[in-house]
């Protein structure tokens, strides 16, 4: 099949609607710096983060996904019987067998719809992208029955006390997928890179916390970015009939964001990949001193990184800044992070400005799995923007003290895998319309309520 032979597929398959849920409490990163006794700017400048969302034992992955799906259905006045696939991407595991998706089926079973395909997908932060891909592939397959798909990408990003804890966070994004969408997935431009690496993993079933090799993980992230970007650009060049495609052919960039500074570095590194393809171009003059740098050394060269960041400073603000806003306010969300970036872009840039623009999206999950795709904005995004209402909702959160965050983490540590248990977290921190954990019985069965 040639790259342009797509006439038999449903047209303009992509994202029709988006909803995002994040906890009602957050802590400011400058206050975390003081609380942790580190130098001012270590988290705000060094990590590029502003605020960090957190929860206690009153919420879990299933409750936040219930909230996101229910709110998406209500805000867009969707019929529960019009959903034919429900796909969850998460690495936050409550049960080693029972999928989060099965709990979400309570929302649809109440309306008589039990014929819904899809299940959970897990591989670190990549699960949300895989769930999205499965939904799109379903719509473009002989299995499609004409109904919509919903993709839920969400996680609790939790770390033990120490250097990684400031990169915590929590959030979930729910997306309605179908044909004739305003945010269209471009066909023939997907690229993927996968390999085996122990950069971040969760082998201890007695703890919610991961094992992290931070420096190695950053290197894996960048190496996977390079591989995906090179393959993507080759395919884009074929579609555009262009020998040397570059970031100039991309209008906006959304990258998986464990913390904002890594996104900055990866976007900057795109210029190094462009330079390697078009080294004689004068616009890459600042990178000429690195022309003979071995590739493996380039991944850890601070001088190259500084040159690339300097070269791309203006374009970063224009192409990446709008997508970076929300992740900087919430923190890491693992599987939800890259989709929160896309929601941020659609919220920060007016619909008329976005029309016909190409949005590059890079998803990375440790272990490792990575993919790169692009979207074309072909319809109005005003409703998505106004319905998300992200700036107003973020500003309405309660800003808590770092000790409250530490206390909430201690509660979760002490009650992980607990049964015959009633959560102790205050319901004052649960907003109206949000699901919460009511109790866990002596068989580890979880029961949820929605706050009036």
From TrEMBL:
Q: Which SUPFAM superfamilies match?
A: Thiolase-like
Identify the CDD domains for this entry: init_cond_enzymes (cd00827)
Q: What is its EC number?
A: 2.3.3.10
Task: List positions binding CoA.
Answer: 217, 261, 265
InterPro entries to which the protein is assigned, alphabetical: HMG_CoA_synt_C_dom, HMG_CoA_synth_N, HMG_CoA_synthase_euk, Thiolase-like
Active site residues according to the UniProt entry: 91 (proton donor/acceptor), 125 (acyl-thioester intermediate), 256 (proton donor/acceptor)
- Which residue range or ranges hold the Hydroxymethylglutaryl-coenzyme A synthase N-terminal domain? 9-182
Record-given protein name: Hydroxymethylglutaryl-CoA synthase
Protein's job: Catalyzes the condensation of acetyl-CoA with acetoacetyl-CoA to form HMG-CoA.
Q: Which reaction does it catalyse?
A: acetoacetyl-CoA + acetyl-CoA + H2O = (3S)-3-hydroxy-3-methylglutaryl-CoA + CoA + H(+)
Q: Which family does it belong to?
A: Belongs to the thiolase-like superfamily. HMG-CoA synthase family.
Q: Identify the stretch annotated as signal peptide in this record.
A: none
**In which organism is this protein found?**
Absidia glauca (Pin mould)
The gene from which this protein is expressed is: ABSGL_11582.1 scaffold 12295
Q: Which GO terms describe its molecular function?
A: hydroxymethylglutaryl-CoA synthase activity
What keywords is this UniProt entry annotated with?
A: Transferase
Q: Which GO terms describe its biological process?
A: acetyl-CoA metabolic process; farnesyl diphosphate biosynthetic process, mevalonate pathway
Domain Hydroxymethylglutaryl-coenzyme A synthase C-terminal: start-end pairs: 183-451
Which domain of life, per UniProt?
Answer: Eukaryota
Pfam families (UniProt xref): HMG_CoA_synt_C (PF08540), HMG_CoA_synt_N (PF01154)
């Amino acid at each position: 099949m040639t790259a342009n032979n797509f006439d038999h597929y449903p047209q303009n398959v992509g994202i029709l609607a988006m909803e995002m849920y994040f906890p009602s409490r957050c802590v400011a990163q400058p206050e975390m710096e003081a609380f942790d006794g580190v130098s001012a700017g270590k988290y705000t400048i060094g990590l590029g983060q502003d605020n960090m969302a957190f929860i206690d034992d009153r919420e879990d992955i299933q409750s936040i996904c219930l909230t996101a799906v229910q709110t998406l259905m209500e805000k867009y006045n969707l019929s529960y019987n019009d959903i034919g696939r429900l796909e969850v991407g998460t690495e936050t595991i409550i049960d080693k067998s029972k999928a989060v998706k099965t709990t979400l089926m309570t929302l649809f079973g109440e309306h008589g719809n039990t014929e819904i395909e899809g299940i959970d997908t897990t591989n670190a932060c990549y699960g949300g992208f895989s769930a999205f891909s499965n939904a799109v592939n379903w719509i473009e397959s002989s299995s499609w029955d004409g109904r919509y798909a919903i993709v839920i990408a969400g996680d609790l990003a939790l770390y033990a006390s120490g250097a990684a804890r400031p990169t915590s966070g929590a959030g979930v994004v729910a997306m309605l997928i179908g044909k004739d969408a305003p945010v269209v997935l471009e066909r023939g431009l997907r690229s993927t890179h996968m390999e085996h690496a122990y950069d971040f993993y969760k082998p201890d079933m007695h703890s919610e916390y991961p094992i992290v090799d931070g420096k190695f993980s950053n290197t894996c992230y960048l190496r996977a970015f390079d591989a995906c970007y090179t393959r993507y650009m080759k395919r884009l060049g074929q579609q555009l009939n262009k020998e040397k495609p570059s970031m100039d052919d991309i209008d906006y960039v959304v990258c998986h964001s464990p913390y904002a500074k890594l996104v900055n570095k990866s976007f900057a590194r795109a210029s190094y990949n462009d330079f390697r393809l078009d080294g004689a171009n004068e616009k890459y003059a600042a990178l000429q001193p690195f022309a003979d740098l071995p590739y493996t050394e380039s991944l850890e060269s601070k001088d190259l990184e500084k040159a690339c960041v300097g070269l791309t400073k203006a374009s970063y603000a224009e192409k990446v800044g709008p997508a970076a806003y929300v992740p900087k306010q919430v923190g890491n969300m693992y599987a939800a992070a890259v989709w929160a970036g896309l929601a941020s872009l659609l919220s920060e840039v007016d619909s008329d400005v976005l029309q016909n623009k190409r949005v590059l999206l890079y998803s990375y999950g440790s272990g490792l799995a990575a993919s790169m795709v692009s979207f074309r904005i072909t319809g109005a995004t005003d409703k998505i923007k106004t319905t998300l209402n992200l700036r107003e909702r973020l500003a309405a959160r309660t800003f808590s003290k770092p000790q409250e965050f530490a206390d909430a983490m201690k509660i979760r540590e002490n009650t992980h895998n607990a049964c015959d248990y009633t959560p102790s977290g205050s319901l004052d921190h649960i907003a109206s319309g949000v699901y919460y954990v009511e109790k866990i019985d002596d068989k580890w069965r979880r029961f949820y309520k929605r706050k009036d």
